[in-house]
Design a protein that fits this description.
Layout (H helix, E strand, L loop, with lengths): L2 E5 L3 H13 L4 E5 L2 H10 L5 E5 L7 H9 L9 E5 L3 H10 L5 E4 L4 H12 L1
Parallel strand pairs: 1-2, 1-3, 3-4, 4-5
Helix pairs in contact: 2-3
Bound molecules: magnesium ion (MG).
């Protein structure tokens, strides 16, 4: 069982992801509504094993969140998965150019894509 943070502004998407993550491995899921909220939760829970992060969010978007966390020694090695709807190649390029290592899944997030990602991260 892993401790997983979901950073996503849609209540419905967060609830769906929590359900899938709990159903597939009984993972412990923490939820953040935007990047700033995500950073606060990360500071309180530096033992988080994996982060799923939306790109477009109010207050602080996913890219700003990733930039900040990747500059923190304590958080920079936590696996990060972006959930993206837009043309993945442009977003991936922007993120790569910032020196951020990440995995990607396409929205709408499916149970299968989460299971595949969990296998890829945790083996
Ligand atoms: Mg969003």
């Amino acid at each position: 069982m892993a401790k997983i943070l979901v950073v996503e502004d849609s209540d419905a998407v967060r609830a769906k992801m929590r359900h899938y993550l709990e159903e597939n491995g009984g993972h412990s899921v923490l939820e953040a509504t935007d990047g700033a909220n995500g950073l606060d939760i990360l500071k309180e829970n530096p033992d988080i094993d994996l982060i799923f992060c939306d790109v477009n969010m109010p207050v602080m978007d996913g890219i700003a969140f990733a930039q900040t966390m990747c500059n923190e020694e304590l958080f920079k090695d936590i696996p990060l998965v972006f959930c993206t709807t837009e043309s993945a190649s442009a977003v991936k390029k922007e993120i790569r150019n910032l020196g951020i290592k990440a995995r990607y899944i396409m929205k709408p997030v499916t149970e299968n894509s989460l299971v595949v990602t969990l296998k890829s991260v945790f083996g």
